[in-house]
Amino acid sequence: MLFLFSITWGTVSGWWVPACLMLGLLYAWVFYRQPVNLSNKFRYALFAIRAIVVTIIALLLVSPLVKSVSYNPQKPLVLVLQDNSQSINLFKLPSPQNDPAKIVDALSGLKSELGDTYDVQEFHFDNDLSNGLSKSFNGKQTNISNALHQLNDRFVNQNIGALVIATDGLYNQGSDPQYEAKNFKNSIYTIALGDTIAKRDLLIGNINYNKTAFLGNDFEVEILAEAYQSKGENIRLNITEDGKQVNSQNITVTSNSFQKQVTIKLNADKKGLRRFNISIAPVKNEISTQNNSETIYVDVLDAKQRVLLLYEAPHPDISVIRQAIENNKNYEVKASLVSDLATIKPADYNLVILYQLSAASNGAIQNILKSKVPLWYVVGAQTDLNNFNSNQKVIRISSGRLEMQEVFAQPATDFTAFTLSDSSRKKIIGFPPLLAPYGSYGSPPAGGTVLKQRIGAVETTYPLLSFGDDAGKRISILNGEGLWRWQLAEYQAYGNHHAVEELFSQGVQYLTANANRQRFIVYTAKHVFDEGENVIINAELYNDALELVNTPDVRIELKSEAAKNYSFLFSRNDKSYQLDAGTLPVGEYSYTATTKNGTKQFTATGQLTVKPLNLESRQSAANHQLLNTIAKQSGGQMLQPSQISQLANLIRKNENIKTVVYEDKHYSDIIDVKWVFVVILILLSLEWFLRKREGEV
Asked: Cβ(104)–Cβ(133) under 8 Å?
């Protein structure tokens, strides 16, 4: 590192320099003009010393700035990023040069090949980024985009010369890595791992089904069966309910890249939560059987849930809400004007939706407000906020004037009462804005917000869709109108309304879950958890007045199929309970939760599944096209594992990869420069010593 110093005068005129010099010369002349007992040689020397000292002191009083410039050369960074997911080892080519462990060894040799001229840093990734290279290949998820994003954040504004990515191009988490790769302004060299030819494999690609059904009714399950390199084989599809076979089908595989959507009709002949296991019998030489089975749960109810939708005037949102709820055959919706409420019995309904009610309707709905029927408020431009705030205690909206503003939906991360699918969450983020009342919003109970408001690019803590409990009655509040925009946008982009339908179906199911007024209920955030995912279980306890209480302790025992028991104590969460049981081993679990309120004992039972995370075995054909595109768009190159030895030479020959010298300028007051005072002290001491030596007082 090289340092240079100079004096800059900033706002001070440069004419002060000769003025200070003249002052120094004048002071020295006055001091030494009278006859002194010194030879001319010493007299002139002392004159010069005194003039220099006075000039420096005068300059200090003027306070110029000292500019220091440092030149810091930074070697080009070469970042090596290695895929450590299971697919690398699972679908490798049989040749020795494609052995993943040897490829890692070759990558680790890049640091010594490039020498001290380059700064080589190594990383490996699966779902997250970690330092160093690895040969474990045990990552259960692959998120290339996230790894690139973290690297970009870590080395922002640094001299990145080249990025080396060794992967098969397969990812099952995050967005398309091509977009994140564009944020790198340097050359990217990709090492194409894996085989582009799909391996022999049968698997269940996807399952669509309703999470609830009615007792005695039929319900459909749509299963996507896939087969690769298995032409001529038969897919033996089996469905069992609690271990008993209820359906079986044979499907002939007609191509080496085969997919077929199979619709199976099952009967809900038992009330309660039913577990179905869907499996495909393995075939000879199949690469993986981990993806041959899936477990689903269906809650069988003994009656339809009836929903009353009240409104004052026609609005396109009314039709959207009705269609979204009635898409689930378990629900029946009656839409009615508030003026016709006299002919309706609210007690006949399991849920009432109040859509934008003004002050004029407040008297008509008092009986509904006093009942224990769950309510879903939709707040809009016609809503009377004063009555809204006084009729419920979940959210308070303070607004000096009723104005509307556009707000986008941002899914919250801490809501666990029910779970929206990843696809629906991604869709909702991109939906057009709703119109919400302008003002400040009180916070609902912790963990009660499903969607937050995003105003422009600013994520706020204001709730958009929230759930809570008010005196033993479940409440939901949607602070916005314009749902018709969501429905149109989703259909235009995806050709369906699945996200809107799922949001309302899940919301209605949660609100009506305790319609029979059970005093103690325990429910999981979802019935099937992925391996490595924290198991979240919720509990609610009601007193004799059907008010939520959480004073007593709630304990739960989870029992695995191998008869291993896990005991937990619930934590209190606002007025209810919640348990984060952490990660559990793969398998089927039954649970029994117990509590006591006064002299009454309460028990709740249920079951859940922790399934293996088989994402890495779902795609066996490497995506080298993706790697080639990333390399080409950056000016780099895609290499085969056998060409890793050429990598160091390619980097050396790349003229865009070079050492960068950064200039750092720093300004400080001359009075802060310590060595100036040392110079003054030395000069004054020298003058004093020479005068004493020559006998001059």
From this structure: yes
Q: Which of 106, 111, 113 is nearest to 79 (CA)?
A: 111
Nearest to 296 by CA among 320, 279, 316: 279
- Neighbouring C-beta atoms of residue 659, cutoff 10 Å: 13
pTM above 0.70, yes or no: no
What SS3 state is found at 575?
coil
> Residue type at 566?
Y
Which residue type, as a one-letter code, is found at position 590? Answer: S
**659 phi/psi in degrees, rounded to 5:** -70, 135
Read off the pLDDT of residues 185-224 as tens digits, 9 standing for 90 and up: 999 999 999 999 888 999 998 898 888 888 888 889 999 9
Instruction: Go through the chain and tell me how many residues it has.
Output: 697
Q: What is the pLDDT of residues 93-138, one digit of tens each?
A: 888 888 999 999 999 999 999 988 999 999 999 999 999 999 999 9
Token pair 């919706």 in the structure block, residue: 333
> Which amino acid is present at 83?
D
Q: How far is CA 679 from the centre of its chain?
A: 60
- The C-alpha atoms of residue 635 and residue 185 are separated, in whole angstroms, by 9
Segment 275-286 mean pLDDT? 92
- Identify which has the larger pLDDT, 320 or 344: 320
Q: Given the structure tokens 């194409």, which residue do they identify? A: 192
Domains of the chain: 2-71+664-693 (no CATH), 76-197+621-658 (3.40.50.410), 201-301 (2.60.40.10), 309-511 (3.40.50), 520-611 (2.60.40.1930)
CB 694 within 8 A of CB 38: yes
Q: Helices 483-494 & 316-326, crossing angle to 10 degrees?
A: 60
* Integer Cα distance of 451 and 500 in angstroms: 13
C-alpha to C-alpha distances, 584 to 342, 420, 534, 608, 609, nearest whole angstrom: 53, 22, 8, 11, 10
Q: CA separation (Å) from 150 to 118, 413, 468, 682?
A: 21, 20, 37, 55
Report the sign of the C-alpha dihedral through residues 451, 453, 454, 460, in that order: negative
Give the Cα separation of 214 and 631 in Å (integer). Answer: 54
C-beta separation of 473 from 370 below 8 A: no
Kindly report, residue by residue over 287-342, the tens digit of the pLDDT.
888 889 999 999 888 777 899 999 999 999 999 999 999 988 778 899 999 999 88
**Residue 377 in this model has a pLDDT that exceeds 90:** yes
**Residue whose token pair is 């990660």:** 583
Q: Quick check: helix, strand or coil at residue 439?
A: coil
CA 603 to chain centroid: 37
